[in-house]
Amino acid sequence: MKLSDLGEFGLIERIRARFPAPQRAVGIGDDCAVLPQRDGQESLVSTDMLIEGTHFLRDDITPYQLGWKSAAVNLSDIAAMGGNPTGTLLSLALPVDLTVEWIDAFLDGYAAASAPFDVPLLGGDTTASPDRICINVTVLGEAPSGRGRLRSNAMEGDLICVTGPLGDSAAGLKAILEGVERDADVQALIDRHYLPKPRIKEGLELAANHQVHAMMDISDGIGSDLQHILDASGVGAEIKVDDIPLSLALKRVCKRFGWDPLALAIGGGEDYELLFTCNRYAEMVLTVPHFVIGRITPRQSGPLFPHSGLAPESLGFDHFKKGR
Ligand code: ADP
Ligand code: MG
After folding, report:
1. Single pTM value for the model
2. DSSP secondary-structure letter at 120?
């Protein structure tokens, strides 16, 4: 059997099954590992790779954008736990023919994404790579004990919410790959793809509310990411597809090129908005901007997006399977 048969999540499950579950910590399966500390705080840790040819094409992304994105997608996992980032580690495997200007611009982007949250760079590793650029970032964070909003916390009757419009990033990527002409709308979508904003402030505010139950960031697409919450919590969901927020730029660009905005919003990843569930009375007084897209139901086996016309395999991204 090949890894493509197993799929990304099958492989992670296979790895998990080989090791004893941690006794006191939250391990594999959430946006961050959570390690209880003695002082009423919890430490958060997460790591993510960006590999040339898989996550980006060297000629399509500027080094500044790559540096920004490397830091931002990791910080987003701390946001998803409702934590405060405390530091990052940056490991680089680089072809030796890259220029010093390239790395300087990369570091400018990395620093710019870290600066709003005062996150120091604590260390890392550096090595040569035969041809491809490989980047690994580890992010550390902290939260008061019990704040971590795990994927397993969703409760029947909860509303399902997202903090912002979906599909922009996937549309930006499509625009890059298809080489479409870049007007202001297309550029806005491309910026959402290359310069995602980690929702740290929103995550902190949401996690401070006890009625916000499960939370994660949308990295693979809501189709697959929401499924993680449902699986972990043992519940089902009813989604109102028409309530999924779409930006004006996405709507206009999709109309122009005949793209399906819903397919991009549901199946496309890398929006890095927060997906959360909360008690419906609490939702009415939430100060964080958000959109209600459905509610948590008892566990069910039917398709999550029955009226979207999307095939199940197009719901979200799996690195070991082909296409979206
Ligand atoms: P995210 O998209 O939030 O970064 P992933 O989908 O990459 O999360 O990973 C899902 C979960 O599986 C996380 O808890 C992550 O720590 C864990 N995981 C992924 N790859 C591995 C691995 N090779 N070994 C152990 N745990 C892993
Ligand atoms: Mg995540």
Report:
1. 0.93
2. P
